[in-house]
């Protein structure tokens, strides 16, 4: 007799891991945007109550963030948010941009006409979301476009590394900026046209420009909220 695909124990463990990942993502964004200030102590019970979860996923999420160097555990005091520097933000964008440019070159060589048409449809979905001014669908549409673009290069492991690096970008920050949204749609249109021409240099240049614009927006926001104070 074959074993069941899952048991109540394994199902519960998977759900708990998913919940801890969601909590980690929420805290990561709050730290990156300054909503949770540097040197603040993140209390298990207070955070669990605020997010509407039990203490266990918060504890596991903080363990994850500790491994990323975003928080430190101080004995008898709890988890303290490690301050970010300007260089930290620049390094994050440099890493993302470097990987993304490599993927962009591969995608330009390998993408099919059908995949390019799919990118055009995904960009139209982003434009539609922008008209409705709903940050959630905007962020999702932007994610869908770049996921399809990066996967078209066939370098799945490299795309996976980029996906994990982009965890440090707060999507709602970009999705709430109308100027960024209009620029993203226009840039995507240029990328699609360059892909049809198989113009590697232009696709890579546009990809690099998107991350440069993202860095400028992120730095301006962090200056505004006084993260470095």
Describe this structure in words.
The protein has 229 residues and is mainly alpha-helical. It folds into two domains: 10-81, Winged helix-like DNA-binding domain superfamily/Winged helix DNA-binding domain (Arc Repressor Mutant, subunit A), CATH 1.10.10; 86-225, Up-down Bundle (Four Helix Bundle (Hemerythrin (Met), subunit A)). The chain is built from ten helices and three strands. It has a three-stranded antiparallel β-sheet with strand order 1-3-2. Helix 4 runs antiparallel to helix 7 (156-165), helix 4 runs antiparallel to helix 10 (200-225) and helix 5 runs antiparallel to helix 9. It is elongated and about 60 Å long. Residues 1-6 have low confidence and may be disordered.
Secondary structure layout plus pairing:
Elements: H1 8-32, E1 41-42, H2 44-51, H3 55-67, E2 71-74, E3 78-81, H4 86-110, H5 113-132, H6 135-151, H7 156-165, H8 171-175, H9 178-197, H10 200-225
Antiparallel strand pairs: 1-3, 2-3
Number of strands: 3
Radius of gyration: 20 Å
Strand order, sheet with most strands: 1-3-2
What is the number of domains? 2
Poorly predicted spans: 1-6
Task: Give the overall average pLDDT.
Answer: 91
Give me the number of helical elements.
10
Order of helices and strands: HEHHEEHHHHHHH
InterPro entries: GntR_C (IPR011711), TF_FadR/GntR_C (IPR008920), Tscrpt_reg_HTH_GntR (IPR000524), WH-like_DNA-bd_sf (IPR036388), WH_DNA-bd_sf (IPR036390)
Domain HTH gntR-type: 17-84
Protein name: GntR family transcriptional regulator
Pfam family, one: FCD
């Amino acid at each position: 007799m074959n074993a069941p695909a899952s048991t109540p124990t394994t199902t519960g463990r998977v759900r708990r891991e998913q919940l801890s990942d969601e909590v980690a993502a929420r805290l990561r964004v709050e730290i990156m945007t300054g909503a949770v200030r540097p040197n603040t102590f993140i209390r298990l019970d207070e955070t669990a109550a605020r997010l509407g979860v039990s203490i266990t996923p918060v504890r596991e999420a903080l363990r994850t963030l500790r491994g990323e160097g975003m928080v430190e555990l101080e004995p008898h005091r709890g988890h303290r948010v490690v301050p970010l520097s300007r260089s930290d933000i620049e390094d994050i964008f440099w890493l993302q941009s470097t990987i993304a440019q490599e993927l962009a070159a591969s995608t330009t060589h390998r993408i099919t006409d059908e995949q390019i048409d799919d990118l055009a449809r995904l960009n139209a979905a982003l434009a539609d979301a922008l008209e409705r001014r709903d940050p959630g669908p905007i962020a999702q549409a932007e994610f869908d476009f770049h996921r399809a673009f990066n996967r078209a290069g066939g370098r799945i492991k490299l795309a996976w590394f980029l996906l994990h690096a982009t965890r440090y970008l707060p999507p709602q920050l970009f999705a709430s900026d109308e100027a960024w949204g209009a620029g993203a749609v226009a840039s995507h249109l240029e990328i699609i046209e360059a892909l049809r021409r198989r113009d590697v240099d232009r696709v890579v240049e546009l990809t690099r420009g998107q991350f440069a614009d993202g860095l400028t927006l992120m730095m301006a926001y962090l200056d505004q909220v006084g993260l470095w104070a």
